[in-house]
Amino acid sequence: MINPKGILKFLPTIGILLFIGIYIYASKLYPGGSQADLSSMGFDWSNNYWCNLMREEGLNGIQNKARPVAAIGITILISSMIVFFFQFANYFEKNRIWKMTIKITGALAMISAAFIFTKYHDIMTTILSICGTVVIIGMIRALHKNQLTLMKVMGIFCIVIIGLNNFFYYNKDLIQYSPLVQKGVFIMILTWTIVLNFIINRKNVPKQQL
Fold this sequence. Notes:
Elements: H1 4-9, H2 11-29, H3 67-92, H4 96-113, H5 121-145, H6 149-169, H7 178-200
């Protein structure tokens, strides 16, 4: 019999896997247009951003059928990640201030991610990057105190790649590579999250109640 509490514990992982599946499906519905070629057809994995899938129209001007599917995907991801940040803070962090910092900045990062497809894209991207960096710093601190060196190194790499993503995006000479860097950010952070979600839910490791 399926244990509902067990499912909730692994909700971040389940949500991430669902998001990936939805992302791929939405990309197949995208009509076309990218920063490299506005008249192109279909989703270009090298030149399209995730937020392109949530436009009312593709960059080529054709109605975007991927939008509602992409909206479902980002909603699932945001909800799952907020649950993860609360799980992580409760499990690894004993300091009250840092615990609240991880929860609040994590939630703010995810909420801002929901609005990156609007006209406030650049502002939301900045908020996402700042809050994302703060929450990852808080997580790295907690992982260091818990002597999880590999997870700490992965967290540091996440900060580096987030910084690179912003550097590429705001540099007109490098922006052509930004969509690929963005996908690298997705892969790294989501992989890190899944691994930590399993560490949090290892059997026979008593910690604070989630």
